Every structure is written in structure tokens, then in C-alpha cells.
Amino acid sequence: MSVEAEAAAIPARLRALLLQRAAQARSGAPDVPSPCVSVCRMNADRSFCEGCFRSIDEIRVWSRSDDAQKRAIWERLLQRAG
């Protein structure tokens, strides 16, 4: 399944939550929100989570990342989400 197809498979309410958190992350405010939407399963090739679009490495380092690193993760996951 393509990244676009996987993104389309996310229920609309979860996609809306992800986009709302993305706007908060891009606002420059402190305490960058987590992209986790509690749909924790990896895609078929295990390259990213189907819920938040983060890679395993991005999920692993999230809690230790500063706000700049978290914003960089947000930008990458939004590119994956299409």
C-alpha cells in the first residue's frame, strides 16, 4: 500500500487531530505536541507508524528531543503523510 493510500485509510477524526497538532507544532510555541493519535502499528514495510507517520527511530527519540528536533520530526512525518 502506498503512503498516500495509508494516509487515506486513517479515520477523518484522527487525521484532523494530527493536522491540529501539526499546526501547534508549526506555531513556534513551546512544548511541541506529540503526533501520536493512539493508532500504534507499523506499515507493511515497517518504515513508519500508520497513525502518526513517524519512523521507529523518530518514535524512540521523541521524549529526549528538544523542540527544534521535534519540529523537524513533524516536518518529515507530514511529508510522509502527504
Main features:
globular; 82 residues; mainly alpha
What does this structure look like?
This protein is an all-alpha fold and 82 residues long. It has one domain (3-81). 52% of the residues lie in helices and 0% in strands. The chain has helices at 3-9, 12-26, 56-61, 67-81. It is globular and about 35 Å long. It starts with a helix and ends with a helix. The mean pLDDT is 89.
* Helix content estimate: 40-55%
Main sheet record: none
Poorly predicted regions are none
How would you describe the shape?
globular
The number of domains: 1
Cα gyration radius (Å):
12 Å
Approximate strand percentage: under 5%
- Give the topology string: H per helix, E per strand: HHHH
What's this entry about, in short?
The protein has helices at residues 3-9, 12-26, 56-61, 67-81. With 82 residues, the protein is an all-alpha fold. The protein is globular and about 35 Å long.
